[in-house]
């Protein structure tokens, strides 16, 4: 058993119990829960809020308040799959959504449309 086998499940469990408090504070904290969405087609090459060019094949995401460069463990509550993304954009600006993922990150989670997720800042 590796350290990864121990730490990853512990992080997932920790976020499951802290999500409600984070929701009340608007997800400005290190963890939270809510709906994830993913960027649709047509964003390729456009500039993100951080100034980077959007790349749907990268493991990046948009979050309303976490600093650019923050790494976040996103776990699908439906599939149990997790992916680590780097924040490089702002959003989503649709009510109830807490993170907007690239197509690559959404595939890693096995997403079908929007998904309930937990977030943990690493």
From TrEMBL:
<dbReference type="InterPro" id="IPR009009">
    <property type="entry name" value="RlpA-like_DPBB"/>
</dbReference>
<keyword id="KW-0732">Signal</keyword>
<dbReference type="GO" id="GO:0071555">
    <property type="term" value="P:cell wall organization"/>
</dbReference>
<keyword id="KW-0961">Cell wall biogenesis/degradation</keyword>
<protein>
    <recommendedName>
        <fullName>Endolytic peptidoglycan transglycosylase RlpA</fullName>
        <ecNumber>4.2.2.-</ecNumber>
    </recommendedName>
</protein>
<comment type="similarity">
    <text>Belongs to the RlpA family.</text>
</comment>
<dbReference type="InterPro" id="IPR034718">
    <property type="entry name" value="RlpA"/>
</dbReference>
<dbReference type="InterPro" id="IPR036908">
    <property type="entry name" value="RlpA-like_sf"/>
</dbReference>
<feature type="signal peptide">
    <location>
        <begin position="1"/>
        <end position="21"/>
    </location>
</feature>
<comment type="function">
    <text>Lytic transglycosylase with a strong preference for naked glycan strands that lack stem peptides.</text>
</comment>
<dbReference type="Pfam" id="PF03330">
    <property type="entry name" value="DPBB_1"/>
</dbReference>
<keyword id="KW-0456">Lyase</keyword>
<dbReference type="GO" id="GO:0000270">
    <property type="term" value="P:peptidoglycan metabolic process"/>
</dbReference>
<dbReference type="GO" id="GO:0008932">
    <property type="term" value="F:lytic endotransglycosylase activity"/>
</dbReference>
<feature type="domain" description="RlpA-like protein double-psi beta-barrel">
    <location>
        <begin position="33"/>
        <end position="113"/>
    </location>
</feature>
<dbReference type="InterPro" id="IPR012997">
    <property type="entry name" value="RplA"/>
</dbReference>
């Amino acid at each position: 058993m590796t350290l990864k086998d121990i730490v990853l499940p512990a992080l997932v469990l920790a976020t499951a119990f802290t999500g409600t408090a984070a929701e009340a504070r608007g997800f400005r904290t290190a963890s939270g829960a809510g709906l994830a969405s993913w960027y649709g087609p047509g964003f390729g090459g456009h500039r993100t809020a951080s100034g980077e060019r959007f790349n749907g094949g990268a493991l990046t995401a948009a979050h309303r308040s976490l600093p650019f460069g923050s790494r976040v463990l996103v776990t699908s509550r439906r599939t149990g799959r997790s992916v680590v993304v780097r924040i490089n954009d702002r959003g989503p600006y649709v009510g109830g959504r807490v993170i907007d993922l690239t197509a690559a990150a959404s595939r890693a989670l096995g997403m079908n449309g929007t998904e309930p997720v937990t977030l943990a800042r690493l």
